[in-house]
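MODEL INPUT / OUTPUT PAIR
PAIR INDEX: 1
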Amino acid sequence: MQNKSEWELIIIGAGPAGMTAAIYAGRKQLDTLVITKDVGGQALWSYKIENYPCFTFITGAQLVERFQEHLQNFGVRIEYTSVVRLSREAETFAVDTEDSRRFFAHSVIISSGKSPRQLNVPGEMEFLGKGVAYCATCDAPLFAGKNVAVIGGGNSGLDAAAQLIKICPKVYIIEIQDDLQADKVIQDNVSRADNVEVLTSTEVKEIRGDNFVRSIVVRNVQSGKVDELQVEGVFIEIGLVPNSDFVRDLLPLNERGEIPVDCSTCTGIPGLYAAGDVTDVPHKQIICAAGDGAKAALSAYSYLVRRPSPSPNDK
């Protein structure tokens, strides 16, 4: 078992879509391997979830813990690494990982989700983990008592601000558009705080500091005025990009880098399915990802039980 490299099903990613797919695969008693760099995906970043059935309120960490408890009942094996390439060899898929291992499967579900979009400004990478963060749910407690800036005025940005205004004396919300993009109910909740300052039509030009972040340089895109804000934390919440680079040589992607799928999560290649935020489904919600993960596992099961039995020489 330790050196096992061939599986009936490999699931890439363990967010809500991947974990649900693994639960359904376990129920179908498929020989399944999950390959992921972490468990929980974007759900783990969510501070407050109020739209998942059966829970009027639950944190992302709590919901992920429930998923994990359910998954553990089926004994599905998990390998903690990142996939760098997915290819097809005859009737088998080959999965190459960043630690130079190779796994084979007769069917694959891609549920690799998305990653935070970067600002690509001076100082961003230099101060990553030293004041620059992409997850308020994970890192907000580290900034208690400090002035911070949230970059991005969408739902994720204002969700981050909602957490930070409770523990930080000053929270700047910086949005490059003329208006905040978040849902009005979220804007209303944040706007009630007296320690929030919203800067619209504003872009970040640089993040400065010594050993840690000390300030950010911002520019008003309408007037051209440049200011330096004294902050010790910068939370970047400007959107997400699909984790799909490893499959570019195998599948066509849309203009956003997402994997097109049909209503059964099929990618167009027999035995290859995709679920969750890495796909082109229009609604990026936890419940939608979980539902698609279930569909993907059931589709993979139908494919596997109907395919001819592999010969001993199959890889």
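PAIR INDEX: 2
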Amino acid sequence: MPMKYVAAALLASSLLSAPALAQSAQQPAGSNATTAQKIKMQQLGTWRTSKLIGLNVYNSNNEKIGDINELINEASGKLDIVVIGVGGFLGIGESNVGLPWNQVKFVMEPRPAGTASTSMTRTTTTGAAVPAETATTTTTTTKNREYPDHAVVNMTKDQLKALPAFKYLSDASSTTTRTSPAPTPIPAPAR
């Protein structure tokens, strides 16, 4: 007989706890999950930061001086440092330098005329023995653009190269030390 009572108690407790579990599974009206569900599309004026990696960096004379290798953000999400690769050829011999985010100007419009990328294409016409070469200039419209076209810094390539090399925390050769406050000691229990 006692086993019957235990089984009845377990059944009753499971029936009573089911509404409580269902209620806790629902998100409150102002929760982050509800807010995230409302975001369905990128807004005008926002950038896809993944597209900033590899972006060409120019100086004020419109000379290419590097490209963006990394973006470093604070724990709050605020972008803090732009890591620019400068020097080298095809990534060999390139060094990284870091600039504060506010020292890098991002430009949505393509670079001025005469500096746009030009590619050679061959076109043939019926009866022509040798195809003629024509230049095709690629232009990009800034309407609904998801990220900037390029970045500009007010430095020459030599000034950028003269900056100290940027070190990541994970670099084994990093000599940067960060100090943090000592932990608060836990008081000894009273006797």
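PAIR 2 NOTE: The radius of gyration is 30 Å.
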